[in-house]
Amino acid sequence: MSRKRYSFIILILGSLATISPFSIDMYLPGFPTIAKDLHTTIDKVQLSLTSYLVGICLGQILYGPLLDRFGRKIPLYVGLGLYMLASIGCAMTSTVDSLILMRFLQAMGGCVGLVASQALVSDIFPSNKRAEVFSMITLVIAVSPMIAPTVGGYVTMGFSWHWLFIILAGIVSIMIAGIYFFLPTGQMPDRSVSLKPKSVMGSYFTVISQPQFLIYTLAGGLATAAPFAYISGSSDVFMNIYKVSAQQYGWIFGLLAFAMIGSTQLNHFLLKKYKSQEIIKITLVYQSIVGIVLIAGVYNNWFGLYSLIAMMFIFLTGQGLTGPNTSALSLAPFKKHTGSASALMGSWRMGAGAIISGIVSFLHNNTAMPMVGMMAFCSIGGLVILYLGNATVLQRASRGEVEDSVSVLL
């Protein structure tokens, strides 16, 4: 594979994985305007974000077996088509309840990009290259928060928030063309994969019974839910507490996204010297420490606008290290059930994100504490799961109950 084609395929896969982040980030600056236009409150509009995350969680579970049974492209076309129709529905809505419903359907369609992109990495690239590829895809994903909120802010101010969803539908239509003409087919359809509920559940049970998958999916999923606490609470914190404009919020969001871009590039070089397991451990330790400092700072009113942004920047650098490495380690044991494994991993990540986002909204108290508190919880919880999981595997291995536990050792 030529370097040019290699880079182009990664760009397409990254774009697919970016559908949901872009769909989330682009409309965040419009929260106050949407709330005013729909005669509701910001915390009710935040539920449209929660419903989107719930849709991603449930949708990925459905797409896993479909991607294994019908191959990668047919489910992609179906899901992205649903996304486009739901985006138009979001643009035409006149009540917050219908917006919440349309966002759920939009997520059910768009989440196919997350599952398919991860499965295609395993299809196309050798195992020793996957962590590097996931890092490059994460780089593409990390660029979207630098663009989406800024674009969203200007579109909301210059036109109306309805146009945000029309633009999203247009972007996905271009992606569909790229998939058709340029994306490799990946794994061929496997008619032996049954879609009967009992068989599907059996496939998922096979996946979760693999210790390496379970540990890194649970730990990585909770750790990577931290940005959802930030995403859910940041518009209220910066725009209502610190009184920044929609455009300024877009620039702040973009600056903080740069934290993930830099660490993603750092991960590329760290992988040449260290194992993914080592990188994950160190990252979760330092994020837990920074999270505790954030809690103490908000509680004691240590932070102004700029110092809070600086601390958030430091915390978010860890996301570019945790996500790619836990993804690579979670999927490494699988060949036949890659689609199902990708679906479970993505579903747990987005499910954790939905729960964390909902908690931030529920705990809303006109301070930054719900946001930073849940960010810290995610990192500390991920670290605890990692240690307890590996300790359990080591104990089972010492009793001869686990044949291959080397890859999950710290």
UniProtKB/TrEMBL annotation:
One of its GO terms (biological process) is xenobiotic detoxification by transmembrane export across the plasma membrane. Signal peptide: none annotated. One of its GO terms (cellular component) is plasma membrane. It is found in: Cell membrane. InterPro entries: Efflux_drug-R_Bcr/CmlA, MFS, MFS_dom, MFS_trans_sf. Coiled coil: none annotated. It is a multi-pass membrane protein. CDD domains: MFS_MdfA_MDR_like. Residues 9-393 form the Major facilitator superfamily (MFS) profile domain. Keywords: Cell membrane, Membrane, Transmembrane, Transmembrane helix, Transport. One of its GO terms (molecular function) is sodium:proton antiporter activity. The chain crosses the membrane at residues 45-64, 76-94, 100-121, 133-155, 161-183, 204-231, 251-270, 282-299, 369-389. Belongs to the major facilitator superfamily. Bcr/CmlA family. This is Bcr/CflA family efflux MFS transporter. It comes from Dyadobacter psychrotolerans.
